[in-house]
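Task: encode each sequence below as C-alpha cells.

Item 1
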Amino acid sequence: MNDDFLTSASVTNLKKRAVVLGQLRQFFDERGFTEVQTPVLSRDSIIDRHLDPIEVNFQLPGKGPATWYLQTSPEQSMKRLLCSGIGSIYQIGPVFRSGERGRLHNPEFTMAEWYDVDANLTGGLALLDELLMRLLGTQRAERIRFEDAFRIPTGLELFEMTPADLGRWAVQDGLIDSVKWSNDWDDWVNLIFSRCVQHTLGMQTPVLVTHFPASQAALARVCESEPRTAERFEAFYRGVELANGYHELMDADQLEARSILANTQREADGKKALPVHNRLLNAMRSGMPNSCGCALGFDRLVMLACNAGSLDEVLSFVAETA
C-alpha cells in the first residue's frame, strides 16, 4: 500500500514546530502587538515582478464571474488595517506562490508578518534580531550593507558596474552562457547574488543585509541621504534567506508608479499584469502611519530550528500529498 497519506515531517519536528509557533506569538504579545487575521483570497494582489499569485475564478451570489488571488503575502490587507488605526500588528498564516517547489519552497507555506508602528529602519532591524535570538538561540546578528555583501565574494563594485560589465563577469565565472541573457542591471545582480553571495551569508551567526539597491526597493522607502539605496533589509542564516523587511513606503503615488513598472516588467517576462488600482492605494491616500514591516518564512525558520535539510521535513503535508 502506498503510504503517501502519512506526514512528510517527523512527529518530533511537528511538535517542535508547535513550540516555535507558541514562542513566536509570545514574543509579539509581550510587546503589545495585536494578532490579526486577513483574507487569503482577494480581488487584489501585491504586484511583484517575480511573485506569481495563484488565481481562483468564481462569482459571488448576484455578481458576475471574477478573478480572485490567493495572497502571496498578507501585506496589502495588513497595511489597510494600519490605515484603519489598529496600531502594531502581526499575523501568522498561509500564503501561496505559483510555480515554487524545491528544498526551500512549497506552493503553500506559512508566513509570519508584522508591522511596528512608529519604528524606523534601526528599530526594525533590532526587532528582527531579537526575534531570531529568541527563536533560534543565536548570537546577535551581524549587519552588512548589500553592496559590501556583494563585493566580498565577487570583488565587484556594485554601483560602478553596468549590465554589460556584470554580464561579462557572470559569463567568465561560468554562471551563464551568454551576455545576451539580459540587458537589465537587476537581473544580473540577482543572478550573481543568488549564485555567488547568498550561500556565504550567516554561516555562523545570522546576517542582516541592509540598504538594497533602490531599484529593488519593492515597498520600502528610498534612503533620502543615499538615494541609490533603499531602506530594505533581509535576514540570512546558514545560507538561507529567512526574512525580508522594509521601512515602509507611505506615498501612494510612488507605490502606484512602482506597481505600473512591475506590471510592465511582468508583461515583458511573458506574465499577466495584476490589478494596479486597489484598496491599498485608497487606504494609503487616506493616511498611513510610519512603520517598519517584516515578513519571515516560518517554515524555513522551523527547518533551521530542527536542523532539517528541507521544508519537507517540517511540513505536515507537502504539495504532492496535500
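Item 2
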Amino acid sequence: MRKPLLLLSLMLVPVAGSYASADPGAEPDAEPQYQRYQRSVTPQPGTSRTVPGQSTPGQSCTVLDAPIFPNAAPSLKDLRLYQQSAGPGSSSQPGSEIPYAITLSEPAQPDADSARILNLGMHGHAIVFDLAMPARPYTEVVLELAGQNYIATATVSGSDAPGAATSTRLGEFTLFDLTAQHLSHNTTLHLQESNFANLHVELNVSAAPGASGFTATPQMVLSASVPPSREAQSLFTISAETTALTQRGKHTIATFVVPTRVPVERVSFQLSPAFKGNFSRDVQVSERPEGQPDAAAITATGTILRVHLTQAGREIRQQQLSLPATIGSNLQGPATVEVAIDNGDDAPLPITSVRLEMRQRMLCFDTTAAPSPTLFYGDSALPAPQYDYARIFTAANTTHFALLGPQQLNAAYRPRQDTRPLTERHPDTLWIALLLVISLLAMVAFRSAKQMHR
C-alpha cells in the first residue's frame, strides 16, 4: 500500500510544480537580439519640410512604409531605435536606445465649417449673396445649388465685412451640372488660401447646351460649407499598388492581397498621360478577410471623374481620381481587396495603376542624440515604450527627412526563452498527468477493496 502512495506523491510534485514561473509582472527587456528585423535610418542632408509648430533643432522624421506593419507587433508597439556603437573590429553593435515619437498625418481642421448666407437676391440677371466665413484660413467653398443641367460663372471678391468700401477680387469660377451628359457636377469655388471674413459672390447661371426651361432664381442657393484648407489636409503613403487589371463584364477589376495589419484609408487611380477624355465612373471597393465567404465582404463606394471642356463660352475643369476607403484591412490577418470600376456601356478607362493608400505615419527622433540610428522590430512580447520625448513632442518648424533602408533579418536575432509555466507551454501535460493520477488512484482503491473483502 505504501509503494502506490509514494508513487502518487512523486507524480503530483511535477504537476504542482509546473505552475511555478517568473514574476508575472516583470516586463521583457527591449534588447535588439530579440528583434527579428532591422532597418537603417539615414538622415538626408538638404531635405526638409516646413511644419507649423515650435522649433526643435535636429529633428528628423522617416516615413513608415507598408512592409513594417505585418512584421511588427500590433500598434507598432515593438519599434525600437538604437544608436550604432563601434564594436570589435570593423563591425558595429546596437548601443543606447533612442526615444522617438510617431505622428499620423491628419488635417488640422478635420471637419468642414458652414458659411452663413447673407443678402441673397438678384442683381439684374445675376444671383448675388454674401458669405460670412469662419475665422480661419480656407482654400475652397462648396455651394449647394438646386437644379440640374446648368452652367454658371461665379465672380468672387473678399472683404473684412459685408458691403465694405473696398474688396479684393479673388477670381471667376465655373460651376456646372451636366447630368444630361452623364458628366456629374461641380459647385466648388477653388480659391487661393484666404482669410477674408466676408465673400461676395455674383452667380450668372444659364442652361447647359441641350437643356431648356432652366430659370435662375435666388432659391437655388441652398447652403455653403468650407472644407479644411488644402495646406492642412492629410498626406498619404502607398500601402499596395497593382498594374494588373482585368475585365469582368462591364467592370475593370484590380485585386490586392493586403498583409496583416496594413492600413488602407484611400484608393487612387493613375491614368495614361495620353488620355484626354471626359468620364464619370462609379467605383466599388470590397474587402474580405482571408478564409471568409464573399458574403462577409465590407464595401465602400465612390466616383472618379474628369471634366475638361468648354461649353457656352465657359471653360470647365474638374478632376477627382481618388476616394476614401477605410475598409478595415488592418485586421489581425490578411485580407483580399477588390476594386471594381463600372464602365457602363463605355470603353474601359486607360488606367495604368491602382493604389491602396494609408495616411502618412512618420517616426521622428532627435538627430543630435542619434545621427544614424537603426530601427528594430519583430518582438511581439515587448510592451509599447513610454518616452518623455513622445509625451512632449511637437513638430519642428523645419523637419529633416530620413531615409528608411530596406528590411533585413537581424543577424544577431535569437528567440526569447519561453518563461511561461509548463502547463501553459504544454497544456496537454497536465491532463495526461491527471489521468495517470486518477488511474493510479483507481488501482489503489481496487486493491484496497480486495484486501478488505478478504
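Check on item 2: The helical segments are 2-17, 68-71, 388-391, 422-425, 427-453. Residues 4-22, 50-56, 86-91 have pLDDT under 50 and may be disordered.
End of task.
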